[in-house]
Amino acid sequence: MKDLVFNGPRPYDSEPLEKFLKQEFGESAKMTSVLHPRVLVTGVLADRRPASLHFFRNFDVPDEDWDAAQSMSPFSSPPKPSDQLVWRAARGTGAAPSFFRAMGPFLDGGMIANNPTLDALTEVHKHNRLVRGDSSCSFGLVVSLGTGVPPPMHVQSFDVFKPESIWDATNVLMGARALGELLVDQATATHGPVVERARAWCQMLGVPYFRFSSPMSSDVGLDETDDRILVKMLWETRVYVIQNYKEFAELGRLLTS
Question: Is residue 23 part of a domain?
């Protein structure tokens, strides 16, 4: 499948991906057809400035009035959960810029919330505040699963200034590129401070927090198709699981107690 989806130059043709999503989820399945568990999937409404974080849900928000919201906003409202096709939600949340074309107004949710732990916890808090009583839910524990932590790399030049020579111009170009990469890295950060903030939030609530993300020996691209690299990544993840067996065992104990 990876060789069919990631085929040709970027941005990749979306048709093979959409065909796969329709086969997996069905062409007519709606978000509300997923009865359990409750699902939150991130997307970015990029047809406005500032862009807005959107959750594809399989449930209605208690205070949400879609008609009123549409009449008050200059932008069209996203479909209700009962109207939102599952495959289109999956396509929208996977619309990574430069990899795939946008899905209507949607881009990949990772542009705003690449590690959406705090955003999901905030949604649960909002839900509890609105419904209260029997319909509210408490936090038992929080499990955050990452996709791997690449090794740190040395940055030779990151300064941008007025060049006084051709050599300076080269350094300025390198610095501008490094700053661009820095902005992208921080906007899409999945580890570091974003993890520590989620951990601290849970500790203040007295809620167990688990974060699992295997260290990687190299930075593996989103569209990597080389089986050797992918198998190595799987092996490194397996080693990570063994090394952190006690933490996984504690998670299992809490889930089954």
Answer: yes
Could you tell me if residue 198 is inside a domain?
Answer: no
Contact between 119 and 42 (Cβ < 8 Å) = yes
Phi, psi of 150 (to 5 degrees): -70, 160
- Output the pLDDT for position 32: 95
Dist. CA 229–CA 224, nearest whole Å: 8
147 in a domain, yes or no?
A: no
Query: Which pLDDT tens digit goes with each residue over 231-249?
Result: 999 999 999 999 999 999 9
Identify the domain containing residue 112 by its residue range. Answer: 1-137
- Based on the structure, what is the number of domains in the chain? 1
Integer Cα distance of 45 and 148 in angstroms? 27
Q: Rounded CA gap, 82 and 33, in Å?
A: 8
Higher-pLDDT residue of 1, 9 = 9
Residue 14 in domain: yes
Strand partners, 42: 55
Q: Residue 42, Cβ neighbours under 10 Å: how many?
A: 21
What angle do the packed helices 117-131 and 193-205 form, to 10 degrees?
30
The three-point CA angle 18-21-27 to 5° equals: 90
- pLDDT at 190 (0 to 100): 84
Q: Which residue has the higher pLDDT, 225 or 162?
A: 225
